[in-house]
Write a structure and sequence with these properties.
Elements (H helix, E strand, L loop, with lengths): L15 H19 L3 E5 L4 H14 L3 E7 L7 H12 L3 E6 L1 H8 L5 H22 L3 E5 L4 H13 L19 E3 L7 H10 L4 H4 L19 H21 L1 H4 L2 E5 L5 E5 L2 E14 L7 E2 L4 H14 L3 E6 L13
Parallel strand pairs: 1-2, 1-4, 2-3, 4-5, 8-10
Antiparallel strand pairs: 6-8, 7-8, 8-9
Helix pairs in contact: 1-2, 1-7, 2-7, 9-11
The protein binds xanthosine-5'-monophosphate (XMP).
């Protein structure tokens, strides 16, 4: 039997009852697969790896070792949230690695988008690998693979090249000789979310919008600097806060800020004030292959603009990106 093929008879998980049944089955499967051995998981804080972590904590408790690598390109509060939920609330065996300086050091002066992606992806695997090497007796590697990942990799193999070299936090280093544990690999995203809620994960974590593996690294456009990255993170937090307050967070698939490496002349406190522009992008899509622009009421745009330009050091303008995909990709880099 091809274990990477979803059986035609498999029922879609749409309710808590179905999710509970799935969870019970997977707990039994995982226990049978790993016995009393240890399992390693790269916990990015994204929906898929978080659901896998919560499921494995239920199945094997402290035999699961989670590693959260903060590459310094997370959104505001995200790494702290991973620690709060998994270490403090779920009592997970969690190793937290703050590798900010390492990543930002390597990225210094690098402006080419593909080079940035390769550095972030490659370094991520290195850091993860180093942490794994410090641990003893790990025989399994858990991954938050979901069914679209399997379908996409089949398609990519058949049809050649992707547009961007996507990096997924937790990519499997080729020389790691560990058996895989992939309890949600036959599920679609909406089903993973139902399972996540049934496992008791916070709603905000389960419904977290998609966030690229290279994180804010592909939104701090051009060569990354700490001050511009900080401004981007703060502006993005304001956008997310306002989208939460007005309800757009529930209807818009992905919304974020990018900050380019350019300054314009502005005025603040009656003085010349040179600053970067913050670019808002809000899109809807079903498969991320094409995307449409989501309307944002002007009243909300004014509020966001006002907050960003007064609260964030270094930003003096706010722009709105109205480009669908194609011709723009969702991310700017
Ligand atoms: P693009 O920019 O290619 O993005 O239109 C499509 C979707 O993919 C996300 N994205 C990534 N996701 N690793 C990921 O896991 C990556 O390297 C990556 N790059 C882009 C992007 O945010 C959008 O949702």
């Amino acid at each position: 039997m091809d274990t990477n093929k979803r059986p035609d008879t498999m029922e879609r998980i749409t309710t808590k009852e179905l999710a509970d049944k799935f969870i019970a089955e997977q707990i039994a499967n995982v226990k049978a697969q790993v016995g009393d051995k240890k399992v390693l998981l790269a916990l990015s804080g994204g929906v898929d790896s978080s659901v896998v972590a919560a499921l494995l904590i239920k199945a094997i408790g402290k035999q699961l070792v989670c590693v959260h690598v903060n590459h310094g390109l997370m959104r505001k509060g995200e790494s702290e949230n991973v620690i709060e939920v998994f270490r403090n609330q779920l009592d997970a065996n969690l190793i937290y690695v703050d590798a900010t300086d390492r990543f930002l050091g390597l990225l210094e002066g690098v402006s080419d988008p593909e080079s940035k992606r390769k550095i972030i992806g490659g370094e991520f695997i290195k850091v993860f690998d180093e942490e794994a090497a410090k641990l003893e007796g790990i025989e399994f590697l858990a991954q938050g693979t979901i069914y679209p990942d399997i379908l996409e990799s089949i398609k990519a193999k058949e049809s050649g090249k992707p547009v961007k070299s996507h990096h997924n936090v937790g990519g499997l280093p080729e020389d790691m000789k560990m058996e895989l544990v992939e309890p949600v690999k036959l599920l679609f995203k909406d089903e993973v979310r139902v399972v996540g809620e049934a496992l008791g994960l916070p709603h905000a974590m389960v419904y977290r919008q998609p966030f690229p593996g290279p994180g804010l690294g592909v939104r701090c456009l051009g060569a990354i600097t700490r001050d511009r990255l900080h401004a981007l993170r703060e502006a993005d937090a304001i956008l997310r806060d306002e989208f939460d307050k007005c309800g757009l967070a529930k209807t818009v698939w992905q919304y974020f800020i990018s900050v380019p490496d350019m300054k314009s002349v502005g005025v603040r406190d009656e003085k010349r004030y040179e600053g970067w522009p913050a670019i808002i992008r809000a899109v809807n899509t079903t498969d991320a292959m094409t995307a449409t622009i989501e309307e944002i009421p002007y009243e909300i745009l004014h509020k966001i603009t006002n907050r960003i330009t007064t609260e964030v050091e270094g930003i003096n303008r706010v722009l709105l990106d109205l480009t669908p995909k194609p011709t723009g990709t969702i991310e700017w880099e």
